[in-house]
Specification:
The protein has 16 helices and 2 strands. It is an all-alpha fold. Strand 1 and strand 2 form a beta hairpin. It starts with 15 loop residues before the first helix and ends with a helix.
Amino acid sequence: MSSSNASPSAPASIDLIGATALGVGGMMGAGLYTLLGLAARSSGVLLPLAFLLAGVAACFSVYSYARLGTAFPSRGGGAHFLLAALGDTDLCASLNVFQYVAYLIATSLYGAGFSEYVGALAGGQLPTVALRLIGAAAVVVFTVVNLVGAQLVDRSQKLIIAAELVILALLLLLGSAHIDPARLTATPWPSGAGVVTAAALLYVTFQGFGVVSNAAQDMRSPKTQLPKAMFMALAIVLVVYLLVSTLVVTLLPLAEIERVAGHVLANAGGAVLGRTGFLVIAAAAILATASAVNATLFASANIGADLASSRQLPGTLARPFLRSANVSLPVSAGIVILLVLFFPLDAVGQMTSLAFLIVYGAVSAAHLRVRGKTGARAWPLLLAVVINAALFVSLLIDTIRTGSPATWITFLAVLAGSFALTTVLRRGR
């Protein structure tokens, strides 16, 4: 293998711009449409500040992933980094199993977001049961898509992201003529704790930066291109988030933002272009969340099958299913459907952010063991661990204090269950 970590038999094909676009596409999407309004409930008009804090927090994890991706180029992402740092240990296997569950919860978030925007298009007349059945139906549809046509949808991802950027740019351009800066002082500013809690919830909107590290083997010079691409992608996405969140809080009354939290961007479009704006943004959100369900379900199934192949999950999940998939696909889809049916959007949003705060914090903590091989400085890794832990505690406390007991009890049970299942399986070996 060459010094650039690219295989000599497979010429590197991804340049800096391509890798940056990959990161932007991985980060910016369904999370913005689903969590923006929910975060505003605790951050109020300081929603842009919450996005800024979340972006700064993600910055340290990006540093960790960039260094790990350069030293250990692989398409395995966080699971491969944990294995490289911790070895084939119970702790590594437990964290990887939990990471698999985290992707399942994220898929349910996008399924719930899909049903929210469908409900908005229906005029808010659909009952809760119908909305959850719609979300579950979307998961079923994309399970079939993953069986027969996943590559087609994967190729369309770039077009979807490009369309979203154009739509958001038009919203920002046209919406700037309708903003009312006085809304920033119309209500008392929220507490600092509320902003931190919102930042913790919004952390997952930056979650996709890891996809860039997965492409390290395909870069011409990953040592220099990978860090640049990841930080450029983070900066672009953060700017977009700051602009969109500022537009929303200066365009809509805070009471309306909280009332339509699940589909607030559609209402922002309506405030700019009336019914046409509402329909365009809602359609973009449906497209983004549907694409996210498909892509994240595909990734979840692959992670489950890989863990089963390495005996970190039951081997049955790695068995072929209808020739074109593994048993992991219908099992993953079944778990996602249960989450969509029994948990509302705010609950799966909280669980998703809590899960990825643990995953990224764990990767940075494990990175400390191998930083001699990656050339990483200790202080950014330590800051990543501390910041992720602080955001996790803040969000968990808020979830316990304001959310349904079923939400935090289920989350903690899943976390404990991941470690218990791994222990049982590995002792059985």
